[in-house]
Amino acid sequence: MLKVVSDTGFKGVEFAGYHGRSAKELRKMLDDNGIVACGTHTPYETVVGDKLKDTIEFNKTIGNKFLIVPSMNARTKQDWLDKAKLFNDLADKVKPEGMYVGYHAHAPDFKKIEGETPWDIFFGNTKPEVIMQLDVSNCSDGGGDPVAVLKRYPGRTRSIHMKAHGAGPEAVIGEDKLNWPEIFAWCEGPGGTQWFVLEHETSKDPVDAVKRSYAALKKMGKV
After folding, report:
1. Is residue 49 classed as helix, strand or coil in its secondary structure?
2. pTM here?
3. pLDDT-derived band of residue 156, with 50, 70 and 90 as boundaries?
4. How many CA atoms lie within 13 A of 56 on its CB side?
């Protein structure tokens, strides 16, 4: 799959699991295919306590600096405030290693609790160094407006998930209902985005989806 991604034209990949591979094995596979690790979906339990040191070393080996937590167990406003404090501390701990921690969006993050969305509670109380990895489709699934969410937090979206929304499982970016020109305009400007992570998780033919997605981005003038 790494070869397919590289041969198609993509420059990096964000891991969401390692399929039993060691960090050294993954680094060799990346190097052999001429691509880099632009992020990892790093389980919450691997960035807290004694596990953080091992996680830092693993990601240093594969050459990744973005430690993105994909989900967290938080139900109340206070839970999210506590998580925000924790991530502020984590940001300070990984900074000397040239790394960042961040959080990835899912639909429930945009459903209000106690008058606010978990997303706003969390990112309204974290440092600029904590990455806001918005998933534009998941945000829309939760009733949020991706463009409005992005504009509330200038400079926070160093990494973003670009995924088609609202046009069926086989639709790729640009064939759907999201306002891609405005999303790209913001990310390429005040958003401060360094990595655009293309995601397509519903196709019956993932390799075809990768290639069609790249072609769609090329048509938009983005690759």
Report:
1. coil
2. 0.95
3. very high
4. 17
